[in-house]
Amino acid sequence: MFPVYLLEDNSIQRQKYAEFIKNGILINDADLELKSITGTVEDFTADYIPQKQGLYFLDMEIQDNKLAGLNVAEKIRQDSPLAQIVFITTHDELSLTTLERKIAPMDYILKDKGLEEIKQSITNDIELMQKNLQLYSHSSKDILDYKIGSLFFSIAMNDVIMLYTQKNNPGRIFIVTKNQLSEFNGSLNTFEKDYPNLFRCNRSYLVNLENSTTYDCHSRVLSFIDGSSCEVSFRKNKELTKIFSNKKN
Amino acid sequence: MTLSVTFGYVGLFFDDIFILFLICFVLLVNWLFSKNHHLNNLKSISLIMAANVETVLFSLGTYTARIIFFMVNNDWKLRILEELQQNFIITSLIINIIYLAIFLLFAEKNREKTIKLWIQIEQYHLGKRVFSISFSVFLAFMVILSISDFQSVTATIQAIILSFFTIILIVTYRQLVFFVQTIAIQKESQEEILYNKQLNEYLTSVHQQYTELRKFKHDFQNIMLSMKPIVDKSDSVELKNYYRDILKEQTELSKISEGNISQINTINSDTIRGLIIQKFFIAKSKKIEFNLELTQDSYYFKQDTLIIVRILGILLDNAFEYVQTINDKEVTCAIVQSNNTTEITIDNPIKQDLDFKKIFKNGYTTKENHSGFGLANVRQLITESDNLYLETKIIHNHLMMTLIIVGGD
Q1: Rounded distance, CA B285 to CA B287, Å?
Q2: Where are the domains of chain A?
Q3: Which residues of chain A have pLDDT under 50?
Q4: Among the listed ranges A155-159, B37-41, B128-132, B145-149, which one has the minimum average pLDDT value?
Q5: Rg (CA), chain B
Q6: Which of B253, B337, B360 should one mutate to test binding to chain A, selecting the residue with the greatest count of A CBs within 10 A?
Q7: Torsion of CA A49, A50, A51, A54, to 10 degrees
Q8: Range with the largest mean pLDDT of A21-25, B80-84, B201-205
Q9: In chain A, what is the greatest distance between 2 CA atoms, to the nearest angstrom?
Q10: What is the mean pLDDT of residues B128-145?
Q11: What are phi and psi of B217, to 5 degrees?
Q12: A103-117, B44-58, B252-266: lowest mean pLDDT where?
């Protein structure tokens, strides 16, 4: 069972949302439990136990502090990169792009849209959370971490497609995931050692075979779900062919 | 030019000093017949410069002709020239024309530069100075020529004086061009400072208005909230409808708190601030909603601002270009700064059916990206510097391109 938290200072709304969440869990038969319903940051902090997975519904403005929800979210994000955060808020409290950079919330639910729509959004978010939980459960190492300057980035392993280096840009690793392309400084050797689930298919490519689609062992071209592909070195061909034939069986 | 050339040939049969008198005469006529007895600076300068150039070319032509005649006859005596006077004049004229043609070709090649120089001289009222410099050079030249004629200085010495004078003439003109350009740059930067000052004043006033509006909005919300119980208790349907209508207005009002250009003063770098302001106005003219999310009190940019400006410019242009093809014309620029790490995000909505994988392909096929060559340039700039990183992300149907700058001390 994974925890669901609700933080909302308005008692009437709090009750309503709690009801919606419980309903949503029931409908989706989700492996979740509404563990904490609180109205102040202090109460929330008292209830809060950092956990790898969790779903958090947060109001942005708590008791006249416009940034209370954001601060709580930053704390949660620090503790658990995989936590799913949903903001329930009014429209004018948002700096969406900044929020996306800092928190990367799963969803924003706008209060001005009316209760019916809020209910629908909450149910959808619980459904999405349930799907995510199923996906992550069978990954051996579920997060890939990297650092740029003083910033730490975490990417769900399930989303990782490949890491690669370029000759004209030594010391820099590019990472391709299902929805992003980023770069950071590091060496592929370190990542190969730290993440044994990733496959080194040639000197400059480290790939996540879980996100590969096909392998042509004659042309030695490995394809991925995003339509990209990479060449496999002659040395690694045999090993990869074996992995793929095992995969089929 | 043609005028002076004609007089140049006439001058051949008189003395060199004739040219000086002629030029002075033309200038005097100009001065007498112009309105308010004002010399047309540009025309006078052209005339004097043409006279200068032509005198030098003519002298060079004469000497070249002499040398040719000496060499052909293998006899270095002036007497030869007297014997072959007819031939000599024609030859020196022909050589002069050849020199003139070369000079005109050269001038034609630098036509744009010359025109620009003229415009600068006119724009910054440098006419008088340039005129006096070129006129004194011309005067000196004439005096030297005349004195050497009167004193019957030997041809060799005259040739040496002339060639040195030609060199000095070229150097002076070059210096003149440099001087005009320096003044132009100085004036331009002065104008820019003035422009920036005006812009800053404008932004301050916008900021004030915006703060007042916010205050009003805040009060308005409170009034509406406090009225709610009264409206609820009331039996009047009309009042309730009216209240609901005003509430609708309130959502309209809420839009004003969105990203506002007045926060731009939190950025310390003139160049970055300038770029964003410029793009803000471009967005406005293209009817694109350009939001700025500057939630911190201040942003410091110490280094690489020129590269950052170039990258941001390209990213913003790409975003503008793209949103013009869709209904949701909205671009957001957000800056987050902490512990010497700065993230600048350009965010624009993208249509569901956009094949976003193609953008990422840029990274490892170099073939494709969604808006032409711009992104390749960004890539190049980032590769060239050690402390820049680019992140491209698609989330909630938005394309977010983030430039991460690590650095400072």
Answers
A1: 5
A2: 2-137, 143-248
A3: none
A4: B37-41
A5: 36
A6: B360
A7: 80
A8: A21-25
A9: 66
A10: 80
A11: -60, -40
A12: B252-266
**What percent of chain B has a predicted confidence (pLDDT) above 70?**
82
Please answer whether residues A45 and A85 qualify as being in contact, where contact means their C-beta atoms are separated by less than 8 angstroms: no
Q: Which CATH number fits domain A143-248: 2.40.50.1020, 2.60.40.10, 2.60.120.10, 1.10.10.10?
A: 2.40.50.1020
| Interhelix angle B155-233/B127-150, nearest 10 degrees | 180
List b or e across B37-49, with b for residues whose CB sees 16 or more CB atoms inside 10 angstroms: eebebeebbebbb
SS3 label, residue B66: helix
Residues A95, B334: contact at Cβ < 8 Å?
yes
pLDDT in tens, A56-69: 999 888 887 878 88
| CATH superfamily label, A2-137 | Response regulator (3.40.50.2300)
Chain B CA closest to residue A108: B396
Query: Would the CB atoms of A97 and B391 count as touching at under 8 Å?
Result: no
Q: Give the pLDDT score at B5.
A: 59
Higher pLDDT, B164 or B78: B164
Domains in chain B (CATH in brackets) are 2-192 (no CATH), 259-406 (3.30.565.10)
Do A101 and B360 count as a contact with CB atoms less than 8 A apart? no
Q: Mean pLDDT in chain B?
A: 77
Residue-wise pLDDT tens digits, B3-26? 555 655 555 545 566 667 777 777
Contact B337, B299 (CB under 8 A): yes
Looking up tokens 């003229």 gives B118
Q: Is the pLDDT of residue B373 over 70?
A: no
Chain B residues within 8 angstroms (CB to CB) of chain A: 251, 254-255, 257-259, 291, 293, 295, 332-334, 336, 338-341, 343, 345, 347, 356-357, 359-361, 363-364, 382-383, 387, 389-396, 398, 400, 402, 404, 406-407
Distance from CA of B202 to the nearest CA of A (A): 25
Only one residue has tokens 């792009």, namely A97
**Cβ contacts of B400 on chain A, cutoff 8 Å:** 97, 100-101
